[in-house]
Amino acid sequence: MLKTGDQAPDFMLYSETGDPFSFHQHLEKDDRFHLLVFFRGEWCPVCNDQLKELEQNLDTFKELNVHILAISTDERENLNKMKETHALSFPVFSDPERNAAEPYGVHYHNDDLYEDHGAHGEPAIFLVDNKKRLLYSDVQTGPFGRPSAEDLRKTIKYIKKTLKE
Q: How far apart are CA 141 and CA 133, in angstroms?
């Protein structure tokens, strides 16, 4: 299980356009903090609301020098449709093999547990700094209870104020 201060695991996914994306390689070129937002899928109304709220508060995250990356086990075509529908400007990655979700300990349930859209990952949020350190995590086992954009803003602001270099 990941702990605050651990090195954030690397992962390789494909972008919406099919280009390869390595998280650690990206961090070497981009010195912002990164908010990894794992969500259930395009079909989840709570997830859609969360992503829309993050988009509506994007200026706040930019002021905090935080880049958002959204990740779901849903298929790329569904996520691209969702991204377009909600005019999301941050990257949305498909992770059906759980290349990112598994090393971060994102909860996953098979289709034998719930009668809702089959097997899928659950919501989780991780804040990673420019030194690849995990600074914050919020891992859910169901769709509700996620921090709001305002809660995240307060948390990130506090972390940046108190973080030891």
A: 24
